[in-house]
Amino acid sequence: MKYDGTMLMTQRLEECQRFYADLLQVDAEAGAGWANFPLSDGTFMALHTPWRPGMTTTGGSQVVLLRVDSLAAETVRLTGLGIDCSEPHEIPGGAVVTLTDPDGRTIQLIERT
Q1: Dihedral of CA 93/66/69/86: which sign?
Q2: What are 24-52's pLDDT values in tens digits?
Q3: What is the pTM of this model?
């Protein structure tokens, strides 16, 4: 089994699509009710509107983890786009910066040492 990608449910598709296009620096492949962001390693990040009752579309306890080469560079780039980022803090094996998407999901950018 191999990891293929992550799909996030949202009622705010257009707003989240703009946010993730800026965050991931990837244009979305989009259709009715969905947007797919292909990533350089062959995996993807996708957004989709709920297709059955009860699907969660807000932050809750999910955390999206994205590895970056430079937290400093990413923080400058994202704050320049109007995305609020926390101060970096150290974790075992690296450091993280935390931000939030339009649906309230927590995203952590991780720089490994």
Answers
A1: negative
A2: 999 999 999 999 999 999 999 999 999 88
A3: 0.89
Q: What is the amino acid identity at position 17?
A: Q
Domain of residue 29, CATH code:
3.10.180.10
Strands (E), 17-82: 29-31, 34-38, 44-48, 63-67
CA dist 74 and 16 (Å) reads 19
What single-letter amino acid sits at 67?
R
Range of the domain at 60: 5-112
10 Å CB burial of residue 45 (0-12, 13-18, 19+) is buried
The total number of structural domains in the chain stands at 1
> Tokens 């490994």 belong to which residue?
112
